[in-house]
Amino acid sequence: MSHQVSASHHPFQHGVLYDYHRSSACYRVRIALHLLDIPYQKVSVNLLESEQTAAGFINPMHAVPFWQDEHIGLSQSLAIIEYLNESVSEDDGASLLPDDRQQRAQCRALAQIVACDIHPLNNLRVLKYLAAVNASSDDANTATSRSPLDLTDSSCSTNRGALTNRSNKPMIDRQHWYHHWLAAGFNAYEANLSDTLFSCGDVPTLADVCLIPQLYNARRFAFSLDSYPKIQAIETRCLQLPAFINAQPEVAAEQSA
Ligand SMILES: N[C@@H](CCC(=O)N[C@@H](CS)C(=O)NCC(=O)O)C(=O)O
Q1: Rounded to whole angstroms, how far apart are CA atoms 237 and 10?
Q2: How far is CA 121 from CA 47, 184, 226, 230, in A?
Q3: Which of 124, 126, 212 is the pocket-test mutation for ligand 1 (most atoms within 8 Å of CB)?
Q4: Phi, psi of 66 (to 5 degrees)
Q5: What pLDDT sits at residue 87?
Q6: Counting Cβ atoms within 10 Å, is residue 90 exposed (0-12), middle (13-18) or buried (19+)?
Q7: How many helices (H) and strands (E) would you count in the chain?
Q8: Whole-Å CA distances, 221 to 5, 125, 225
Q9: pLDDT given at position 141
Q10: Reduced to 3 DSSP states, what percent helix, strand and coil does the chain have, rounded to the nearest 5?
């Protein structure tokens, strides 16, 4: 499997990625674009300023990434990556998926551990919703208000790791929640790995494209990766490759500045 694509065979004239540098779903697409050597332009969408929620935003799901080219407008990172992959593979045989059918299925399964079983549960709107539910159960009793993102409220007390509000109702702690779903997913991911250089063989694939951004998020939330030696070894290898380095949030932020 090769990731080299000749410059004359780019499948799109006008590929545009609606992107936020810290979004891990966008980070996946940026890695894939670099691995497939597809040139593109970016439209920055600032999630912290809720630009994705604007009426008429290009993605009715109000999320990034979103891909637009002369043929299609497309949401969902995995759909975008498979579309990009197929568009390039048709011309050059480069692929982010293994040739072997069983390995291909296994690769998609690993990618979906991250994209379906970890990420959606730890997404910004889910964390905001948790915070709002916590706040409303407290506010109903105390008539205080707080930011929907503030889950470390001083009015919470801990009881064997569980948080309660002033009226002793259980609250969900953001860090606990985040770590719980990371551990569930990474435990399964690690258990599925064999002794190959990358997640599915000896070249990077769709699985690695999903894994690396999730590891970036895990570190942001102070999640220990000590229990995952194979995952860590794969991360080290990926982060030596230009396609992964150039897609990193810090690099993407500089490019957008
Ligand atoms: N399943 C979607 C998830 C897209 C998604 O939720 N993106 C996040 C950033 S990683 C987002 O835009 N969140 C905005 C929000 O939650 O308000 C995908 O894989 O593209």
Answers
A1: 27
A2: 17, 11, 22, 24
A3: 124
A4: -140, 135
A5: 92
A6: exposed
A7: 9, 7
A8: 36, 16, 11
A9: 52
A10: 50, 10, 40
Query: Residue 125: CB within 6 Å of ligand 1?
Result: yes
What is the spatial order of strands in the sheet that 157-159 belongs to?
157-159, 162-164, 170-171
Three-class SS state of 82: helix
Pocket-testing residue among 31, 47, 53, ligand 1, by greatest number of atoms within 8 A of Cβ: 47
Helices (H), 98-248: 101-112, 124-142, 174-192, 206-220, 229-238, 242-245
For ligand 1, whether the C-beta of 52 sits within 6 Å is yes
State the Cα–Cα distance between residues 17 and 45, nearest whole angstrom.
10
CA distance 209 to 160: 37
- Residue 59 Cβ contacting ligand 1 at under 6 Å: no
Q: Which domains does the chain have, with CATH numbers?
A: 7-121+177-256 (1.20.1050.130)
Instruction: Decide: 214 in ligand 1 pocket, CB within 6 A.
Output: no
The answer to whether residue 75 scores a pLDDT higher than 70 is yes
- Percent of the chain's residues with pLDDT above 70: 81
